[in-house]
Specification:
Elements: E1 4-11, E2 15-16, H1 28-42, E3 52-56, H2 68-75, E4 84-87, H3 93-106, E5 112-120, H4 138-143, H5 151-161, H6 166-185, E6 196-199, E7 205-208, H7 220-224, H8 233-238, E8 255-265, H9 266-272, E9 278-287, H10 297-308, E10 317-320, H11 326-335, H12 348-351, H13 358-373, E11 377-384, E12 388-396
Parallel strand pairs: 3-4, 3-5, 10-11
Antiparallel strand pairs: 1-8, 1-9, 2-8, 5-8, 6-7, 9-12, 11-12
Helix pairs in contact: 1-2, 3-13
Length: about 400
């Protein structure tokens, strides 16, 4: 059976996901085009050799509709023979794209494949659906008669269940910004970020290469002054355990971004003269309570560790997506994980969470950290809407 390996990972620096953000003037297809081009160019790869492009994108409406992966393949100038498909596993979409790509190589269906992700939250707002209709249907409503909730309420429920107070959440969030700012200043993101030309507010062309969402001056005291973002009398009555701790400061910001990873068989890499950087050890995807919603990284991690024959202490780093501060904190508490190894270069609270792009973004950050520190094993996992999660363990080569 062919062994799938990671040859390279690239991403755009984050842009604030609102009008005036660094990437807000760029069409989402163009964001994905740029990382696809960058990936093949810097590896001197003939794009005709790419068997497929699998891209994650959550809100596949408006400018992100009609299979953005195929549109980006064509826009990038790849031969028309290269196909592309777009998938949605909510926040884990591009991580799932990685799983499908690697599993396709292992099955012998692909020799060379690109897994990618994109989301423009400034141009296609969160919650956009193709026709603005109810996506759940009567059967889901019948199963959950009290109704599913938004992720902010779920974050409040997680914080309450794991007894994470406001000060703990804000301290974690400030540390995320500190780590990310320190990593950026040291040039630790330089290998994964590919610069892109954008048009500034004054009409001038600028090179965007720094994460726009990192705030080096963030303090616990400053975060403490922010008001809870999801307080609602209806939910207070339904969930009396909530005391409203989730704010914009301990949540990931709306973000624009794109990222991509080059995956191929060991044989293909050798034939092309490319050096693999990591191999896949195990994969997992699982579901959990869709009301609590954000807890599935815990069982997904256990499943990935079991399949790999590893324990949590065997891992040298873990990237747990910081959709909200309670998510990595509850995960670490439940798994007795070393906090020093958790999101060592900062997480989505600082670096942003461009939904469909985040999975491949986390993979690149994890791989670069392992290489810089000499680590062997790393894990990435992320919560996903409706109570799902992917987990991936890689081994640096």
């Amino acid at each position: 059976m062919p062994t799938p390996v990671i040859v390279d990972v690239v991403r755009l620096a984050s842009g604030k996901g609102k009008p005036g953000g660094a990437l807000s003037g760029t069409h989402p297809t163009s964001l994905l085009v740029h990382v696809l081009r960058s990936l093949v160019e810097r590896n001197d790869l003939d794009p005709a050799l790419v068997d497929d492009v699998i891209a994650g994108c959550v809100f596949q409406a408006s400018e992100q509709a009609l299979n953005i992966a195929r549109n980006a393949v064509l826009g990038a100038g790849f031969p028309e023979s290269v196909p592309g498909t777009t998938l949605d596993r909510q926040c884990g979409s591009s991580q799932q794209a990685v799983h499908f790509a690697a599993q396709g190589v292992a099955a012998g269906a692909y020799d060379v494949v690109i897994a990618a992700g994109v989301e423009s939250m400034s141009r296609v707002p969160m919650g956009t659906t193709p026709m603005g209709k109810d996506p759940y249907g009567p059967e889901v409503a019948a199963r959950y008669p009290e109704g599913l909730v938004n992720q902010g309420i779920s974050a409040e429920l997680v914080a309450a269940r794991w007894k994470l107070d406001r000060e703990t959440l804000d301290a974690y969030s400030a540390e995320s910004h500190r780590r990310a700012a320190e990593a950026a200043a040291a040039g630790f993101f330089d290998r994964e970020i590919v610069p892109i030309a954008v048009t500034g507010a004054d009409g001038a062309t600028l090179e965007h290469r720094l994460d726009e969402t990192v705030r080096a001056t963030t303090t616990v005291e400053g975060l403490a002054g922010l008001k809870p973002a999801f307080a609602d009398e209806v939910f207070t009555e339904r969930f009396p355990e909530i005391d409203w701790r989730i704010t914009p400061g301990n949540s990931s910001p709306l973000t624009d971004g794109a990222s991509a990873v080059l995956i191929m068989s060991e044989e293909a890499a050798a034939k092309l003269g490319l050096t693999p950087r990591a191999r896949f050890v195990s994969y997992a995807v699982t579901g959990d309570d869709p009301v609590l919603m954000l807890t599935a990284p815990i069982p997904a991690t256990r499943q990935a560790l079991r399949r790999a024959g590893l324990g949590i202490d065997d891992l040298d780093a873990y990237e747990v997506n910081e959709a909200f501060a309670p998510v990595p904190l509850a995960w670490a508490q439940d798994l007795a994980a070393d906090p020093a190894k958790l999101n060592p270069r900062g997480g989505a609270i600082a670096l942003g969470h461009a939904l469909g792009s985040s999975g491949t973004r986390l993979l690149g950050t994890l791989l670069n950290h392992l290489e810089a520190t000499g680590g062997r094993y790393g894990l990435q996992t992320m919560c996903e809407a409706a109570g799902m999660a992917n987990a991936t363990i890689i081994e640096r080569i």
